[in-house]
Specification:
single chain, about 300 residues, alpha/beta, Rossmann fold, UDP-galactose 4-epimerase, domain 1, 2 domains, 3-stranded mixed sheet, about 35% helix, about 15% strand
Length: about 300
């Protein structure tokens, strides 16, 4: 009797923090993993280099394909070629502050990219399960705690684009019977977090200040409250959502809250430093519209 072929998964955004951890997780479960990467003049695959083997090597289960969420025809040909059982849409312009500088690009990649991918799945006629990476930034100005029934009030082009993707995912689920789910993930961190995000910006600066390589750290709003979790655990939640009997949307969060100032204090104290001696204010890091507090209520996920 021939062996059962492996489950196939397609990941957009595979080179990011979450994409790299998800690829690791799926490979550990025996999946064949296909990642979508954008063409660039330099390699941008550092987070997954340890997973990659030459596709000519026997037994290779990770394959990378050029593509972009701005190119719907490429998504059609790629999906028709790979025929994945699961699709994880993690690709986006994901920096909230940058979305104010690049609102059109953010809307195109983070918002319209999702409907291009969903429509490509529908056009190809794939019977697959679809995960959309939604965000706590969709809640924006709505007071915490926030759960799946909380009213959305995004306060950035990024949050608005993610909200568009949230609703089209629900629309394709309800309109076409797709197994399509939204994971509304609150902030989640790891050593693979991009260094322009506030947590890695802080930890990198602390290390450089301790080593005598940097004199100061410039910050914006220190009073923002966030619910920070651990990225590998949140990636496991993504996979679990696609293993359920019925599609549903879930908030993934710790339910705890800390300010950016708290994070600064913890990080500097860990290195034996007084943060107030090194942190300086720069209004370029303020958002035109601030999000004061994001704290998740993951009761639905905890009960699942």
């Amino acid at each position: 009797m021939s062996a059962q072929p492996p489950q196939r998964a397609l990941i957009t955004g595979i080179t990011g923090q979450d994409g790299s951890y998800l690829a690791e997780l799926l490979l550990s479960k025996g999946y064949e993993v296909h990642g979508v990467i954008r063409r660039a003049s330099t390699f941008n695959t550092a987070r997954i280099d340890h997973l990659y083997n030459d596709p000519h090597v026997s037994g290779t289960r990770l394959f990378l394909h050029y593509g972009d969420l701005s190119d719907g025809s490429r998504l059609v040909t790629l999906l028709d070629s790979v025929r994945p059982h699961e699709v994880y849409n993690l690709a986006a312009q994901s920096h909230v502050r940058v979305s104010f500088d690049e609102p059109e690009h953010t809307g195109n990649s983070t918002g319209l990219g999702s409907i291009r991918l969903l429509e490509a799945i529908r056009m190809v006629g794939l019977d697959c399960r679809f995960y959309q990476a939604s965000s706590s930034e969709m809640f924006g100005a709505t007071p915490p705690p926030q759960n799946e029934d909380t009213v959305f009030y995004p306060r950035s082009p990024y949050g608005a684009a993610k909200l568009y993707s949230y609703w089209v995912t629900r629309n394709y689920r309800e309109g076409y019977g797709m197994f399509a789910v939204n994971g509304i993930l609150f902030n989640h961190e790891s050593p693979r977090r991009g260094e322009t995000f506030v947590t890695r910006k802080i930890t990198r600066a602390v290390a450089r200040i301790k080593a005598g390589e940097q004199d100061a750290l410039y910050m914006g709003n220190l009073d923002a409250v966030r619910d920070w979790g651990y990225a590998p655990e949140y990636v496991d939640a993504m996979w679990r959502m696609l293993q359920a009997d019925e599609p549903n949307d879930f908030v993934i969060a710790t339910g705890t809250n800390y300010t950016v100032k708290d994070f600064l204090q913890f990080a500097f104290e860990h290195a034996g430093l007084d943060w107030e001696k090194y942190v300086k204010f720069d209004d370029r890091y303020l958002r035109p519209t601030e999000v004061d507090a994001l704290v998740g209520d993951a009761s639905r996920a905890n009960a699942a």
